[in-house]
């Protein structure tokens, strides 16, 4: 019985120590960037990573509005939590005083880039669209993760 208690204590200590290591950062399990700018058609476009958007939703650290630019059927089937269906009539009403707007669709296209430039304030596009959200946040592929010890 005493051996079981010792093993349980060792398991708890190992679990707590694993929680405070930077294993995911050292092994590049997640993208290291949060925001990035790219030049598209000669104009700057801001992007946000799917992981960082998930972190913002979870921690509620930043005031953001998320707009889904897909069709109603796709939105109704599944959308990012707290996302609103984008209404083209919103226009200048979409700005918020202290925060940012995140737009996403099925994929990144010229229409989405144009919309991001037209809306006032800090506007970000979800890099990779819904495909990135599905593959990186909802259903991550654990087979691509790197393990330091190749024997495992």
Description:
The chain has 152 residues and is of the alpha/beta class. Helices cover 38% and strands 19% of the residues. It is built from 6 helices and 6 strands. The protein has helices spanning 2-19, 23-26, 50-59, 72-77, 110-118, 129-138; strands at 35-40, 43-48, 64-68, 84-85, 100-104, 122-126. A 6-stranded mixed beta sheet has the order 1-2-6-5-3-4. Helix 5 links the parallel strand 5 (100-104) and strand 6. It is elongated.
Indicate the percent of residues in helices. 25-40%
Give the N-to-C terminal Cα separation. Answer: 30 Å
- DSSP, total strands: 6
- Please report which band the strand proportion falls in: under 5%, 5-15%, 15-25%, 25-35%, 35-45% or over 45%: 15-25%
Looking across the biggest beta sheet, what order are the strands in? 1-2-6-5-3-4
Helix/strand order: HHEEHEHEEHEH
In short:
The protein has 152 residues and is of the alpha/beta class. It has helices spanning 2-19, 23-26, 50-59, 72-77, 110-118, 129-138, and strands spanning 35-40, 43-48, 64-68, 84-85, 100-104, 122-126.
Q: Topology, please?
A:
Elements (H helix, E strand, L loop, with lengths): L1 H18 L3 H4 L8 E6 L2 E6 L1 H10 L4 E5 L3 H6 L6 E2 L14 E5 L5 H9 L3 E5 L2 H10 L14
Parallel strand pairs: 2-6, 3-4, 3-5, 5-6
Antiparallel strand pairs: 1-2
């Amino acid at each position: 019985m005493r051996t079981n208690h010792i093993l349980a204590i060792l398991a708890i200590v190992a679990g707590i120590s694993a929680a405070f290591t930077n294993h995911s950062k050292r092994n590049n399990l997640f993208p290291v960037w949060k925001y990035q700018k790219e030049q598209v058609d000669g104009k700057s476009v801001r992007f946000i990573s799917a992981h960082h958007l998930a972190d913002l939703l979870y921690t509620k650290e930043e005031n953001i509005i998320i707009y889904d630019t897909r069709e109603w059927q796709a939105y109704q089937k599944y959308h990012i939590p707290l996302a609103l269906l984008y209404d083209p009539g919103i226009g200048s009403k979409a700005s918020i005083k202290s925060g940012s707007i995140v737009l996403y669709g099925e994929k990144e296209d010229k229409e989405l880039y144009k919309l991001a430039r037209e809306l006032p304030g800090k506007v970000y596009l979800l890099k990779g669209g819904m495909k990135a959200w599905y593959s990186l946040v909802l259903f991550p592929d654990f087979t691509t993760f790197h393990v330091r010890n190749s024997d495992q």
